[in-house]
Write a structure and sequence with these properties.
Blueprint lengths: L24 H5 L2 H10 L3 H17 L6 H26 L7 H15 L5 H25 L4 H20 L12 H6 L2 E2 L2 E2 H19 L1 H11 L1 H6 L4 H27 L10 H11 L11 H20 L7 H27 L1
Antiparallel strand pairs: 1-2
């Protein structure tokens, strides 16, 4: 019987090394076939190729899509989604989904905008970010206390957090925002021609890839989703890890909101609507399995770029904006089904 990665975890959460079998002769020779197999075995290669093809197709019909300013705006929009999608990678790897990230994103924006009228903008943004972490923690506390799946808890907090946006704003767009502050000049501009949000997404992507793949916390996250009972039996604190993952997701969603506010320099009542779908879509399209146990942070970045390119492509092809969510959802369904088929084929080959 094959043994999952979580079954091999020690009580400390470490994964022992296992001796490999005899190497494939083609791999030893390092021929073209072996290199091709290695290349296409990379989880992110499929989404990356899809992204390149989409850019080429849209650009071939609409030259303006390849204009540097359009591409920069596409990358900026993708960066906001990618930052929140990174947190979703950790949750999906634990077979959990947070539906409240759009509400957390919106609350962070509204709070930052409201507090900036009386506080230093940097302090106001920092406090809003702490609130976002606290909202993620609340999701975790409720899920753990009542032993309910995160998706059920966040189905309720999704509405509650959206309601907070109405309460905090008083039903009116934010006003008296100090737009001359260094907060907007630094976080809302470009550095070396690239949006600050994109730099933040790239740096966070590197850091969170290390956290997910090279640390004990990341190993416990993957083990929790791969085999929940085996992970719990081996001594992994499942509930604590889930709490930390939800706090991380809340903080990242709040950071995405803060960065978007720095660029758009405004906050209305519709901010963050549909954002949770885009974050979930980016993580799944990028290669993170909904079945848990595996995930890819770089894939979430590629997935966010795909979502952003789809949205831009719909505009260039003059498709009714009402179709945006439909197309995004259809792409998610396609990605999930494709992932299921690929994993079944791999399992068949192993057995």
């Amino acid at each position: 019987m094959s043994q999952s990665r979580s079954d091999m975890l020690t009580p400390s959460g470490d994964i022992p090394l296992v001796a490999s079998g005899p190497a494939d002769p083609d791999v030893r020779r390092g021929g073209p076939a072996s290199w091709a197999r290695r290349l296409f075995a990379i989880d992110e290669i499929g989404p990356l190729l899809a992204l390149v093809v989409m850019i080429i197709v849209i650009g071939s019909f609409h030259d303006r899509f390849l204009d540097p300013n359009v591409l920069i705006n596409t990358v900026r929009s993708a960066a906001f989604v990618a930052i929140a999608a990174y947190g979703m990678v950790f949750l999906l790897s634990m077979t959990e989904i947070d539906l409240s990230v759009g509400g957390i994103y919106a609350v962070a924006v509204i709070l930052a905008a409201k507090w900036m009228s009386g506080l230093d903008p940097w302090l106001a943004a920092g406090l809003a970010l702490l609130v976002a972490v606290g909202m993620g923690a609340l999701n975790g506390v409720l899920a753990n206390a009542f032993r309910i799946p995160v998706i059920i808890i966040t189905l309720g907090t999704f509405s509650a957090y959206r309601g907070l946006v109405q309460v905090i704003s008083g039903g009116r767009p934010a006003s008296d925002i100090p737009l001359d502050s260094s907060f907007f000049r630094i976080l809302g501009e470009n550095v070396l021609g690239v949006p600050v949000a994109a730099w933040a997404a790239l740096i966070l992507g590197v850091a969170l890839t290390f956290l997910f793949t090279k640390t004990r916390f990341g190993a416990m996250v993957r083990a929790s989703g791969s085999n929940h009972f085996a992970a719990e039996f081996s001594g992994i604190p499942i509930r604590r890890i889930r709490l930390y993952a939800l706090m991380l997701t809340g903080g990242l969603s709040g950071l995405a909101g803060i960065l978007s506010f720095a660029y758009y320099q405004g906050a209305d009542l519709t901010v963050g609507v549909g954002f949770e779908l885009q974050a979930i879509a980016a993580a799944i399209i990028g290669g993170t399995a909904v079945s848990g146990g595996t995930g890819t942070v770089p894939g979430a970045l590629i997935g966010a770029l795909i979502v952003s390119v789809i949205n831009s492509g719909l505009v260039f092809f003059e498709v009714d904006p009402n179709w945006t969510n439909f197309v995004t959802g259809a792409v998610v369904v396609l990605a999930v089904c494709s992932d299921a088929v690929i994993r079944r084929r791999r399992a068949t080959r192993v057995t």
